[in-house]
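Reproducibility note. Readers wishing to regenerate the assembly model reported in the main text can use the exact inputs given here. Chain order matters: entities are listed in the order in which they were concatenated for prediction.
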Amino acid sequence: MNIKVIAVAVLLALPAQAEEAAGMIKTAQGKVEVVRGGQRLPAGPGFAVMQADKVQTGAASSVGITLRDNTLLSAGANSSLSLDQYAFNPTTHQGRIDASLKRGTLSVISGKIAKTSPDAVHFRTTAVTLGVRGTEFILEAHGEDD
Amino acid sequence: MELFVPFTLATWLIALNHEPANDRVVLLPSADGRAGAVQLSTAKGELLLAQPFAAAEASADGNLTGSTADGPSVQARYGDTLAALPARPVSFTVYYLSGSAEALTAESAGQLDALKAELLRRPVPEIVVVGHTDRVGSQADNDVLSLARAGMVRQRLLDSGVKAQSMEIAGRGERELAVDTADEVAESRNRRVEIIVR
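Running the prediction on these inputs yields the following C-alpha cells for the assembly.
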C-alpha cells in the first residue's frame, strides 16, 4: 500500500466537503429561477443548488435536479420548491432532506439517504408531511407562496 | 323556479372556486422493484401508502382521503413533471487485486469506452468515484484504503481524458459489500470502485 498516495488522496478529498452544493439542475424548460438570500437568480442545467434555496418555475416550465445522494427531483409548471435542509455524508450515506413544496407539482425518486436513514427524508406541503422510505412518488400542492 | 336553478349553480361554482384544492400524493411503482412507502401525516391523522399507485388527498385542514391512481391518469396529470426528471445515475465497477490501491484486474480496463459514451448522453454529467474494500483490516483502515482506491481511479480517468462537470471521490470502506462475508475474509468481488455517472 502506497501511504504517500493515500495521504494525498485524503487531503484532496477534505476541502471538497466544506461548502458543498446539495445538487445540480440537470433539466430546465421555460422560466426557472432560484431564490437565494433574497436574490432571484436565473437557473439552468449546471446550476448548483444549495441548502436553503427555493427553486421556482413559471407557466409551461419545468426543472429537474439531481441531489448529491442521487435523489432525483422534478418540478412542473408554476411550482415553488424549497430545499430547507440538506446534508449527506458520502462515506456513511447518512444525512437529511427536508424539502417543502408550496405550490405546483413535484416528482421524487429517493436516493441513498432514504435507504440508509429512512426517518431523515421529509417532503412537506402546507397540509401534509411525507416521510419517505425508499420510493418514487408525486406530490401536488396548492398552498400560498410566501 | 326557473331562476332558482342557475342561481344555486352559480353560488355553488363560486363556493367551489374559493374552496382551496386538496394537496395530492401518488406512490409510483419503483423501477428497481423494491416496495417503498410514504407515510403521510397531517394535523388530523396519518396514512401509509405502500402499494404502487396508492394515492391520497389532504385538505387544507388536514383531512386525509385514500384512493388509487393508475398509469394513464398519472401520465395525464403529471406527464410534464415526470418528463423533467433527470436521467437515473448509472454505475460502472472496476475491481482491485488484494490489499492494493493501484493494481486493477485485467477485465476492468475495458469499461472506459462505455463510460465515455454515457457521459456524452447526459447534459451536465457529474462523476462520483466511490471506493469499496473487503472486510480484511479495520474499518478505519478500510475507509482510508477505499478513498485511496477512488482517488487512483479518478486520476486514471483524468489521465484518459475523461471530462465531466465535476469528479468527486468517496470511500465507503467495508460498509457496502457486493458479497456478504464474515469479518477478515478476503473477497475479490468486494475490492472494487464504482464510477457513478449522473
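We highlight two features of this model. The two ends of chain A are 56 Å apart (CA to CA). Chain A touches chain B through 57 residues (CB under 8 Å).
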